[in-house]
Amino acid sequence: MVKGVNSMIKIAVMGYGTIGSGVVKVIGTNQDSICKKIGEGIEVKYILDLRDFEGDPIQSKVVHDYKVIAEDPEVAVVVESMGGVEPAYTFVKAMLMAGKSVTTSNKALVAAHGSELIAVAKEQNANFMFEASVGGGIPIIRALNSCLTADRIEEISGIVNGTTNYMLTRMADAGCEFSEALKEAQEKGYAEKDPTADVEGHDAGRKIAILTSLIAGQQVDFEDVYTEGISKLSAIDILYAKKMGRTIKLLATSKQIGDTYAVMVAPFLLPQEHPLYTVNGVFNAVFVRGNMLGDAMFYGSGAGSLPTASAVVADVVELAKHLGKHIEIEWRPQKLAIADYRQQSARFFVRAACSKKAVEDAFGEVEYIEVPKAEGEVGFVTAQMKEAEYIEKAKGMGNIIQMIRFH
User: Fold this and answer.
1) Inter-CA distances, 95 with 75, 99, 162, 224, 243, Å
2) Residue 275 CB-density burial (10 A; 0-12 exposed, 13-18 middle, 19+ buried)
3) SS3 breakdown of the chain: % helix, strand, coil, rounded to 5?
4) CA 332 from centroid of its chain's CA atoms
């Protein structure tokens, strides 16, 4: 039976930026449907921020000290949308220690302290959820924790960074260079002033570390994830990709090898039949292969205020429905020793400033690719081999301009 909207669950939002303001808007706009799902309404009692918002209706809710929220027994659920590891970690832990459930969109916090915060939540009979930390509006974490628990996940490969996907799409569509695509992404608000975390793959590295921690059930440190970004890709690389009928995507991948996973972030050449081939612009998608499920893909808006806020509020609803009851999440703090990515096999597309004889002396039989504008170099695709073998052969040849893996 649905209670009247006078019955309200009190929540707090820490950080009133893009995501935090989106959360308040989603709750205000969808209050009726939220009330039907929970049986009670949701009221934002506090907004924690360093700033004041004079003239904004939310100003009366603004506080500057997190302890006000932690010490208020009326607040049952807290949203953390500040970003960064500190002070987010200190604030979130204080909320959990006070018995409040927390949801966050903060991948840096989850990657660094996820297992610990889940354990603290369990001790306090509360919950720590983080759906929006990986795929923005895509419900991938809930699927892994709830819907795919009967499967052994053999592979997760995802386009999990909207900035780089937008840039690669523009490079493919307009034939522009990396620097031009970055400038355009910044002008449209898709890229930060300092885009390093996105374009060098660190953001995607944190996200695949979180996903692998969940499917393995124990801690994967993002610092251990081998990471390449897109900053060294050029318009000529795109020409080669098109000639081969492929597209270049920055993928975060995790593949089961024995009792562990090989985890990496790098540009890959995808064939047209791969489900991720058509994921363009700022959209994200996560491809999952289960030993019983087979192949599945989760697709949607990976960034932006309202799509991400929608995922956060979905967590708020779930937390509100389970007040006083811990939802089990398998993520132990023991560190998983991930596999050496160099033991994975692939074909490799290579550009080199050398003769075809030097190529064949190093790699044997290869498939040559020729495109206009690529002068003074040889483009070729190797046979299938382990990455460690490729590295040794490439050393012998020298003068490598570019290498991109086939997927």
Assistant:
1) 10, 7, 31, 30, 54
2) middle
3) 40, 25, 35
4) 20
3-state secondary structure of 126: coil
pLDDT (0 to 100) of residue 172:
96
CA 357, CA 398: separation in Å to the nearest integer? 13
The pLDDT value given to residue 4: 41
**Is pTM beyond 0.90 here?**
yes
- Tell me if residue 207 is catalytic: yes
| Type of residue at 145 | N
* pLDDT tens figures, 76-121: 999 999 999 999 999 999 999 999 999 999 999 999 999 999 999 9
- The pLDDT of residue 267 is 98
Q: What are the pLDDT digits (tens) for 174-222?
A: 999 999 999 999 998 888 899 999 999 999 999 999 999 999 999 999 9
Phi, psi of 383 (to 5 degrees): -70, 170
Provide the token pair at 71. 């010490």
* Ordered DSSP codes for 298-354: EEEE-SSHHHHHHHHHHHHHHHHHTTT-PPP---EEEEP-PPPGGGSEE-EEEEESS
Residue 186 C-beta-side C-alpha neighbours within 13 Å: 13
Residue 167 in tokens: 């840039």
Annotated active-site residue in 207, 249, 255, 393: 207
37: enclosing H helix or E strand: helix 31-38
